[in-house]
Amino acid sequence: MEIVSLIKAIPAVYKIDNKLNVTKWKLNDIDRNVLEAALLLKKTFDGNITVISVGPEDITDVIREALAYGGDMAYHIVTNEYIFSGTVISAAIESILREIEYNIILSGEASSDLYDSRIGALVASRLGLPFIPRCKVLEENNGNIICTLDLDKEYKVSVEYPFVLEITREFGKPKIVTILQLLRASKKIIHQVHIEKLIGKKSYAAPLEVIGLDRFEVKRERRISTGSIEDSVNFILDIFREERIL
Amino acid sequence: MRGALFIGDPNSIDYLTSLLDRLGINNNVLFSNIEMKTYPQTIDKVYIIPEVMGTATLTSMIDILRIHDVSIIVGDTSSWVTSYIPYLAGLLSGEYIGFIDDIYRDEQGFVIKKTIFTGELIVKYRVRETPIFLTINPSKVEGNLNKEAKEAIYLSESSPFYKILTEKEKEKDKIDIQYADVIVSVGRGFKNIKDLELAEELSNIVGGVVGCSRPIATDLKWLPEERWIGLSGKKVEPRLYIAIGISGQPQHLAGIRRAKKILAINIDPEAPIFQHSDYCVVADLYDILPLLIRKLKEQGVTRS
User: Is the N or C terminus of chain B more exposed, i.e. has fewer CB atoms within 10 Å?
Assistant: First the structure.
């Protein structure tokens, strides 16, 4: 089985001076669950995992981490800067997927940077594939894939591939990657291709323009009580009075 | 200009209608999974669709959006709606932005505001081309909209994306945490489900409602998902948010950034929640809550 894991490198350290300048990247939390799901499928159906990620040159370490989880090879779609547009990201991923073999494409329920919750559905629709949302459990039954979906109700469903499967945060507990796995991952192949080569310069200039980017800061008082239990309870009672809760 | 509303929760309809009204968009199309008795007057056509996506429904929806020349599609954040909308966006090559905070129009077109980076940044987008696909977490609407009965057209699905083998109802409750004035919120610091009674009791006394962090609702299932506050749960704006035994992961903080005041009680002085609180109590909740409840009762403060 050919499994594709869509993973995202998200900003870990960044500055804002008119635009976003990211100095350090990290793997999006939920994408660890995506990689766990990919590993489960790989073990169950004897397959290969291809990792695809979109971002600037310096997200390579994040892609290596994804490979250390059990990915076999990766495609890094290189961008000049951080991309906000889901249209652009999904178009670039689509062009890679049109060139490679796949049975199941896995994506996370959301990334904690933009939190649009979109890439799986956007990629599925561009490829004309079924989209299976919010899977929290994956099982095999007589060669069939059974997914438990966490929607308004909890559904157990069977699906025939190819399809795009969205994985939730509740999907198992991701394992910790060892140094040995990271070392092995350094030998795995990462194909790099610039986004403009995939979708053209014109499409890269997205229909979505960022016209403002500011810190959202709420000044908090940070009054601290570290005294006795009695003191702390009186502190809370004073707050309740101050805030007219009582 | 015409719009489309996409409703998973019938309570969202007034908010989404008012939002499109404010943008000067009417004669709107409505997609929903539930037929209602009456609809806002600005809704022109009503379509009832299945929750499970499939080729037939999506094809019909694309035709409807094209026939009505819909420029903006806005949905609530129900889990199945947030799957449909980006899928439609992909089919129509429109830009999709999920979980937005606000949208308005200026002389150059639509401007969309959204909190990103787990609530650390606010971004403003201008979208150059339509159709635009959006989801938004509804807020309270003041006043009543004029409503009337309308005929609903049902779209059926012959080739769904997946075959349902079993389905299980989730526990639902009627408490609307989103509009609560005071929220007593519980996290992993609580050791047993029974201990949540302490939070319930405090909440009753201070006239609040009990909320929770994600693990309490999704992993432990001690409270219904409607009580889960955070990035992918409810975003709340209470007058006072009391976080008890909540460490303050970025995903949780994203749901409480607009709280007027935050009081945190946590045994760990290094808990991130304290960096984002107005009032910080470094103590064991099991010491604080029983004494606090007793003192409130002694002072004659009871509402339950």
Answer: C
B70 touches chain A (CB under 8 A): no
In this structure, the answer to whether residues B203 and B64 fall within a common structural domain is no
Whether B83 and chain A come into contact, CB under 8 Å, resolves to yes
Give pLDDT tens digits for A58-99: 999 999 999 999 999 999 999 998 999 999 999 999 999 999
* CA of B74 vs chain A CAs: smallest distance (Å): 14
Domain ranges of chain A: 2-204
Chain B residues with CB-CB distance to A169 below 8 A: 214, 218, 232
Q: Among B58-62, B128-132, B182-186, which stretch is predicted with the lowest mean pLDDT?
A: B128-132
CATH number of the domain bearing residue B112: 3.40.50.620
What number of C-beta contacts closer than 8 Å exist between A and B? Answer: 242
Q: In chain A, which residues have their Cβ closer than 8 Å to the Cβ of B182?
A: 245
- A146 close contact with B: CB closer than 8 A: yes
Please report which confidence band the pLDDT of residue B302 belongs to, taking 50, 70 and 90 as the band edges. low
Domain around B191? 177-298
Q: Is the peptide bond before B224 cis (omega within 30 degrees of 0)?
A: no
User: Considering only residues 195 to 214 of chain A, which have any Cβ-Cβ distance to chain B shorter than 8 Å?
Assistant: 206-214
Q: What is the average per-residue pLDDT within A115-138? A: 94
In Å, how far are A63, A209, B204, B245, B250 from B114, measured between CA atoms? Answer: 28, 13, 34, 29, 16
State CA B265 to chain mean position distance: 25
Q: Name the residue of chain B whose CA is nearest to A11's CA.
A: B117
ipTM, two decimals, is: 0.91
Same domain? B142 vs B242? no
Query: Token pair of B172, please?
Result: 């639902």
